[in-house]
Amino acid sequence: MKEYEVECIRCGARYSKADVVYTCRKCGGLLDIKYDYSEVDVERIVKAQGEGVWKYRELLPFDDGTKPITIHEGNTPLYRCDRLAKAIGVADLWVKHEGLNPSGSFKDRGMTVGVTKAVELSVKGVACASTGNTSASLAIFAAKAGFPCYVLLPKGKVALGKVAQAMMHGAQVFSLRGNFDDALRVVRVLCEEESLYLLNSVNPYRLEGQKTIAFEVAEKLGWEAPYRLILPVGNAGNISAIFKGFLELKTLGITDAIPRMTGIQAAGAKPIVNAFKEDKAEITPEEKPETIASAIRIGNPVNAAKALVAIRESGGVAESVTDEEITKAQLELARLEGVGVEPASAASIAGLKKLVEMGAIERDERIVCITTGHLLKDPERVIEICEPPKEVEADVNMLRKMLK
Ligand code: AN7
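Predict the joint structure of the above. Result:
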């Protein structure tokens, strides 16, 4: 297999694959998995059989003999969305619905790699902080692998479907008095001190799984990168991972371009948008992030440094959208295209609309929006924003009068 090392993006310090390390011990910087690309077999990528994340194992950090912990994640549909495109006024719009992963979010891609790595490392248990989806996904993979699983959720701020999944699949679920950023701070210390394996997206192995979104998009488009890729940004792992995926394809000569990485945050939680607009290399954390898109209610995104590089180097942009814009986009996507997503995911569509109106996106660009989580994750929100069912007698005439 190709060799790899774990490298600090800030100071270049290197760590071996047997090391349990999440951020650089020398400077605190984020870590990246680095391959020797001259050893990568391009044919094994473009001609790969099978489907999902492990189809691309030539670019995953494991021996060929490694048996993955998998629930058949990935291989999600890329829908051509002409009705929505028309409503927004663009010509070439696609939506990749990551909500159709087995747990209902893109997190499965990262967890199959992260938990397979946990098995290789023989850890005694796994843990995460989460706005919901990470915990749901980790609980499932931990169940599959037989690991004890501990998840810290911000009290009262996680959508019902996600908590239900974490509980059902046997995680020990803690409702933390604080927000997501508090939960992440606490779980990072807990993992160090209790030798639990941390599976938030600060763990670089998570991002190796998530970068396969880029591979699937490019492959579906005939091994071509779209002009622009738009996605919601919370902890900023996914935008960093997808950028890395496209960068690898270009480095290997499989594609010849990188999409403009376009990150959308909620107006009440937009530290990356602020840093981008103020031309700063680092974010200023937000103490009290607030949005109905609870998945991205994050004030101190751990992967901000990687995300800002992804956005800037690709010629992309970061923009924010209001809760109202998110809700409108969620309804439009559901009713024009039959794609049901949770609020955070609709931020990508809301962001597209806003950037088109602002003139920051050309109408003829080929655009791929990533919808990260399924509608059923957050049923309470659906009930708040849709007209409730009308009670009716079991009588056709009465019913007919009520039809609109
Ligand atoms: C549906 O579950 O952070 O920018 O703890 O669930 O990679 O963090 C979820 C994030 C977008 C943001 N859409 O992705 C968690 C968590 C949905 C999400 C994001 C999340 P990142």
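The first strand starts at residue 4 and ends at 8.
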